[in-house]
Write a structure and sequence with these properties.
about 70 residues; mainly beta; two-stranded antiparallel sheet; about 55% strand; globular
């Protein structure tokens, strides 16, 4: 659909929603975009973000593995 041919990274992640509740998602990074796949059956792309639109990446130094994309 988006012509992304190579996956560089994929993992299950916990997204913190606006109500401070955790939601499981699949996080996929390709050569041109980041994808969040969610829903009950994890078949739907819930968000696609182009890599060129990300201005910074923040990561904690603790063992909690928190990553923030801006």
């Amino acid at each position: 659909r988006y012509n992304d041919s190579r996956i560089y990274f994929a993992d299950r992640v916990n997204k913190v929603n606006e109500g401070n509740k955790l939601q499981q998602r699949m996080f996929i990074m390709t050569e041109s975009a980041l994808y969040w796949i969610g829903g009950l059956l994890r078949e739907k792309v819930t968000r696609r973000t182009l890599l060129k639109s990300i201005t910074s990446i923040g990561m904690t130094t603790c063992a909690d593995n928190i990553l923030v994309l801006k």
